[in-house]
Amino acid sequence: MELRVIDKTDEELRIEIGGEDHTFMNVLKGELLQTDTVTAATYDVNPEQSGGQTDPVLSIKTESGVDPLDALAEAARGVQRTADDFTDAYRAGIDA
Amino acid sequence: MSYKCSRCKRDVELDEFGGVRCPYCGHRVLLKERSPNVKEVAVE
Amino acid sequence: MVNDFQVEFIEREDRRARFVARGLTPALANGIRRAMVADVPTFSIDTVRFVENTSVMFDEMIGLRLGLVPLTTPLDDFEPGDTVTVALEVDGPATAYSGDIESADDMVVPADENIPIIELKEGQRLEFEADAVLGYGKDHAKNQGGVAVGYRHLQRVEVVGDAGEFDEQEPNILRGVIEEAAAEHAEGDAEDGDLVATETFGNDLTERYPGKEVEVHDVPEAFVFSVETDGSFDVDELVTRAVASLGDRAAELEEKVAL
Questions:
Q1: ipTM field
Q2: B39: contact with C, CB 8 A cutoff
Q3: Which residues touch C119 (CB under 8 Å, ≥6 apart)?
Q4: Which of A83, C81, C148, C234 is deepest in the core (most CB within 10 A)?
């Protein structure tokens, strides 16, 4: 996973996440959209006129005063929690 | 080049002068044997 | 965000399972499905060194068949890219089976012993040594551990009235799993909230609710997963590894964002 920031302002971020595909990006986007301080989040694996770019580009917009990088880090933690919680629920389902 | 005669099953060495013919039985059908080397194949 | 996941099994065997998972977003359900197919590595034969092949098939064709033989994969003991050497030696007349493959490591062996590789006639012989490599399903289908993985929505069937008395009732086919919501109208023992596989009533709602008008709705945030592995590991391993792979990637992202 290689990260490359393309654009960054106080409330907006465009970042390339090398080596990932829909599997992870869609889960991450879903997590971002459930964060209150994030007003918009999307990703594109093959942006138009990208000259053959295939690594996904994630775009995030946040409310003022919230650094989009912090929002991204929080979403990453959220996905980890989600994964752990699902594993616990699955194990509980086995024991039930 | 090593071949095998399809009629008498003997190993045949061909050179550039003898033409395609088994020197033992005169048969003109010779089979190329698989190389004894180990062949490595990648599964794709 | 607080997660409230719930998992309930409908069937659970070593290699196949069906379970209802609640509290998931569609994004997460699809992420788990995709991870099961592409991101849980399995061992698979990758390079074959043919010492002798006098069978009727080319080396490459036999190589392809060998690649598709599932090998047991204890993921705790190996890293992706690790190699295990296997070998086979069969003289005709006989059929070479996956079970004839000898492995250098007892933990990595063919998951099934009865997969035919090729039938050998009198005088034919197959001998090779091969490297099995732990690789990912996204790189080659032979490395897919999950072979029939999918999900559909859990559905709730509600009885909304009686069917017209003199109407011929058409079959009302529904496949998947339903959540019982009209137990009083169902045939046999039933309780509201039961999870019922549609096979149990011939996938036909008119069999379960005869003479009734029914409506079918998707239950939000509930997914019926159907998971089958190729025998490399059991279903529990596949699911937990797939979910863990999502978590690992999130951890890596968090770490790199912090820099």
A1: 0.90
A2: yes
A3: C95, C96
A4: A83
- For chain A, the chains sharing at least 3 beta-carbon pairs closer than 8 angstroms are C
Buried b (16+ CB within 10 A) or exposed e, C117-144: bbebeeebbbbbbbbbbbbbbbeeebbb
From-to residues of CATH 2.170.120.12 in chain C = 42-140
- The DSSP 8-state label assigned to residue B8 in this structure reads T
Which listed CATH number (3.40.50.920, 3.30.450.30, 2.130.10.10, 3.30.1360.10) goes with A2-95?
3.30.1360.10
- Percent of residues, chain C, with pLDDT higher than 70: 98
Q: What is the pLDDT of residues C65-91, one digit of tens each?
A: 999 999 999 999 999 999 999 999 999
Q: Ramachandran region of residue B5, left (φ > 0), alpha (ψ -120 to 50) or beta?
A: beta
Where along chain A do its domains lie? 2-95
Domains of chain B: 1-35 (2.20.28.30)
Nearest-by-Cβ selection for B41 from C50, C54, C140: C50
What would the CATH number be for the domain defined by C42-140?
Answer: 2.170.120.12
C134: alpha, beta or left? (left if phi > 0; alpha if psi -120 to 50) = beta
pLDDT score recorded for residue C213: 85
**If you search the block for the tokens 């994964």, which residue do you land on?**
A83
Is C98 buried (19+), middle (13-18) or exposed (0-12) by CB count in 10 A?
buried
Q: H or E segment at A71?
A: helix A68-95
Query: Which chain C residue has the Cα nearest residue A67?
Result: C257
The strand ranges marked E within A1-96 are 2-8, 12-18, 38-44, 57-62
The residue in chain C having the minimum alpha-carbon distance to the alpha carbon of residue B41 is C48
User: Which band of pLDDT confidence, cut at 50, 70 and 90, is reported for residue B40?
Assistant: very high
